[in-house]
């Protein structure tokens, strides 16, 4: 059992989000997602969770496992072309995960998703939280434009553009 992880999760509060991603940053992230989705028929959702609850910690739930849970809970899989992409940030662990639906995941190598996560984490280590997320949105935008260009009749926005704070 990792006691340091448990303590970090139990004592990290709302102020952590306000410090790392103030409301102006969240608004710019929302705008970037909205602008991105004009370019393709995919969907991007950004979700931030401050910490896990004690039960999840005692079960040693990883950020990846939680991201998959959130992918389901937020219905990222429920897009017309199965091309939703979740960017999940677990603040207490300083961990970023990308979970992509089967439509886009079949076309993008797992290494590409990993590279995007590593770029975000590198930006975070420099204290560039907003920049890291915006760079990830741009990279995902490029992949979605390549594999899911905008249909001639325009696409429907199936997921909210506003970042989800859990």
From TrEMBL:
Identify the residues that the record assigns to the TPM domain, covering every copy.
20-141
User: What's the domain of life for this entry?
Assistant: Bacteria
- Protein name from the UniProt record: Membrane protein
């Amino acid at each position: 059992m990792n006691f340091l992880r448990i303590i970090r999760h139990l004592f990290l509060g709302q102020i952590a989000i306000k410090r790392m991603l103030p409301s102006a940053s969240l608004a710019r992230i929302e705008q970037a997602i909205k602008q991105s989705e004009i370019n393709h028929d995919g969907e991007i959702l950004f979700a931030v969770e401050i910490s896990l609850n004690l039960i999840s910690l005692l079960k040693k739930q990883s950020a990846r496992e939680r991201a998959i849970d959130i992918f389901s809970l937020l219905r990222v899989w429920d897009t017309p072309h199965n091309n939703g992409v979740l960017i999940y940030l677990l603040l207490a662990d300083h961990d970023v995960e990308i979970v992509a639906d089967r439509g886009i995941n079949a076309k993008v190598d797992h290494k590409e998703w990993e590279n995007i996560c590593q770029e975000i984490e590198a930006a975070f280590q420099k204290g560039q939280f907003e920049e890291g997320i915006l760079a990830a949105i741009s990279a995902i935008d490029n992949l979605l434009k390549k594999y899911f260009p905008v249909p001639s009749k325009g696409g429907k926005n199936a997921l909210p553009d506003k970042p989800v704070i859990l």
